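S.,

Sequence below, as promised.
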Amino acid sequence: MSLKEQSVSDRAAKHDGGFWMLLKVIELRLRFIVLMAVTAAVFVYWDELANRYDKWMRPAGASRVAVSGLEYYCPMHPQVVQDEPGRCPLCGMPLARRKRGAKTPLAEGVTARVELSAMRAAQAGIKTVDVDYAPLERTLATVGYVGYDERLLANIVSKVPGMSRVEKLYVNFTGQSVEVGEKLAEMYSPELSQAIEELLSASTRASTTLTAGSEASRLIEEDRRAILRASREKLRRWGITSAQVDDILKRGDATFTIPILSTINGHVVKKNVVEGQEVQAGQTLFEVADLHTVWVQAQVYEGQLRLIKEGQAVEATVEAYPGEVFAGRLEFVQPHLDPATRTVEVRYALENPGHRLRPGMFATVSLKTSIADLPAFRKRLAVDRPAHPSLLKASLTQAEQKTCLVTGLKLGAMGEPVQVEVQGRRIWTCCAACPPKLKARPARYLSRLAPPPKHEVLSVPESAVIDAGRRKVVYVETDPGVFEGREVVLGPRVGDRFPVLSGVEAGERVAAAGAFLIDAETRINPALAGTPPAHEHASSTATATEARP
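The prediction came back faster than expected:
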């Protein structure tokens, strides 16, 4: 073979090798694309493939149940779900029927139901506490001040008609202490001088003896005595005492200055006159205040009015005496509201020996209110207390007990009631599943028969409350690991606890730690929230309809 032919043959072989290498690369690329497409198809249609496999592997009887599209569940224990009718293995209650995959209808006031394994609950740090009665007391702190006791204020005025002149002042400055009957000033009045002249004249005529035995003489003497009495009464009404009138009659002198006397013990708050000043009848000369008792007045916002009432304990502190508390009882709540500050004035009186508390001092006022004394909680306590003392008997009839202490259902709703003896008492339960629970935690359930303490209310920790805006929710552990969201009505927060008006009962256990994680679980998995009650669904539908434009 010539060199030329050899070169042509090498080039042909090299060309064929490159072509087959290209085919190999294309084949590998196509295999990769097909593999990715198959993998994606499996991911997309995984549920359908799994259902078809399950249907293929399921026995014929089970297939018929699945085809029916129905399943059976326990209303008391929603975690119990079966393909066939029967009774709940936990409580013995007949299973209810529903469409397969439908949400569990929830009871009134229940927002969600979550079941957690013991490991998940421990990992979430969930801890539960008992709902119990506690003596909660709310302290309302507000700003106040020390003021005069208005019942111990006196205005000293001129009572003589016409104009009078201040001849002499015995009280020359504001703040001077005075006693009852002490002379504050002397005044001269022409009107008074004329009245004294009339008094002296009437006295002289009344002392003149007429002819005895005459009827006319007797009548004249009676008239003179009447005129004398009238003259004395006129001076008395002008502020002249009987002793002063007697002194005037004894001296027989019409020159007289009116003494202005203090009517109470205290000190002069205001001095409105000076020597030589002329004043008219009714004009206030002095204002005198008795400081043996003072008022402590405070302002309370209208939103806090439910926390106050007359007679409740109240305390005040002032900067002048740090660490000292001035305690008393609320005496008065103003019947009107100040529209400018949206506050109501409250006050109480304090004894003030030594005049230590001075009007005008600022005070920090603390009003203490027992939550049990609020009207809403008084009503709740009245409802919770047994209507019949027979509930405290050692043995109850079904008619006396009426409801199961464990489930709260009406006796007979789940078949023949079961009687159980616990702690020396015979109690009825609704089914055979309740006695073990009753015996495991007797204090929790028997407390529902005892009347609540008089000055205590049901309460839950603040950490147990989930604030969902328009409603407040707590999670109640109805069974080990099963938490039920309950809508609750709460009172004002006291420290780290909330008093409860409705939603939970004494002896139930709520999630005090980790409640927000349980709530988050219901939000992540909406199926756990179940189906709201019919009236709530109708209400939400109506609201949505109204909201449409």
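DSSP finds 13 helices and 29 strands in the chain.

Coffee later?
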